[in-house]
Amino acid sequence: MTSGARAARTAVSVVAAVGATLLIALAAFFGLQQHGDARSEGASADGRHTRSAEELGSPDYGVCRGVSAKCYHDWGNFSPGTDGYRVLLYTRTAGPRHANLGPALGGGLNPALADSNVVQKALVEMGRKHGFTVDWTEDVTQLATPARLFRYNAVVFYSTSRDALDDAAQTSLRQYIRGGGGFAGIHNAFGTEYNWPWYEGLLGGANFYDHGPAQPGKVVVQNRRDSSTAGLPARWNFSDEWYNLVPAPSKVRVLATVDESTLAEGVTGNQGHPGHGRNHPVAWCQYYDGGRAWLTTLGHDAAAFSTDGSFPGAEQFQRLILGGIESAMGREPFCRAG
Which of 102, 119, 141, 179 has the fewest C-beta atoms lying within 10 Å of its C-beta? Predict the structure, then answer.
């Protein structure tokens, strides 16, 4: 081979290598747009509809995840027979705050609640009625060590937002889940920790993108045997914001969907997401990185916790999250096949 040919071949190889590196970088860039922390409820990171989980493939987030109990690790960290059942409710917001959370809470564990702290008071009462204790906090230091979290059979994030955890709490939550802990993520738990891929995986490989108008629709139960859906009607009326998700949940057991055809004002979100068609999930479950995770996008309206029948679907919603929390903490069978 002549020196000129060798030089030409070397130049082609360099160009090819640079091109491949550029393509990888671009793919990584556009794939990671779904984690942008600029998003909040009603706003996406860059205003574009990013690719779905189906288009990107189903990531494993470097952990065992799915509907098989083989992904659960029982390290003997919980003793309900001795300690009873206890849940930690976390409602810290570092961005938009849902009205049903009421005013921000004081520091420490179990700070004073106002009447407008609807979510906190409702879940405390739910625990009282059903024989488990609910502690509540918005103080990130209460999540700072695994030893603190292992006091609880499940941790519930209800409408947290944006960067609600610091580094210590992130590490602690992951160690807790790996130690067999339970997690329930409700409503804007999907608008939280956008820049942390492990947390996205905890949510079922899903993240909030946008939503259409808050409006009535029909929830369709897809799995009648799970602890959270057993006994619920096959279809029931409810009103919510009907979150659109990017990516959409994958490797999970979908428990309930919304029938998009029942949404009179449509499902197209305020950032242009067209909805999910016939498979628009609103509740699902999975085993994840050694623990249990039960998820629902429902729970926007304070009236969803009413008990007087004035809000259609309030009773069914409360039964749904009760069963989800009880199964996440291991008190009821978890993520049963339909």
Answer: 141
What pTM does this model have?
Answer: 0.85
Length of the chain in terms of residues written: 338
Residue pair 271/46 in contact by the 8 Å Cβ criterion: no
The domain that contains 92 carries what CATH number? 3.40.50.880
Residue 63 contacts by C-beta under 8 Å, 6 or more apart in sequence? 71, 198, 201, 288, 289, 290
Q: What is the pLDDT of residues 88-146, one digit of tens each?
A: 999 999 999 999 999 999 999 999 999 999 999 999 999 999 999 999 999 999 999 99
Q: Is residue 100 domain-resident?
A: yes
Q: How far apart are CA 52 and CA 274, in angstroms?
A: 12
Backbone phi, psi, residue 322, to 5°: -60, -50
pLDDT band at 338 (very low <50, low <70, confident <90, very high): confident
Burial class (CB in 10 A: 0-12, 13-18, 19+), 232: buried
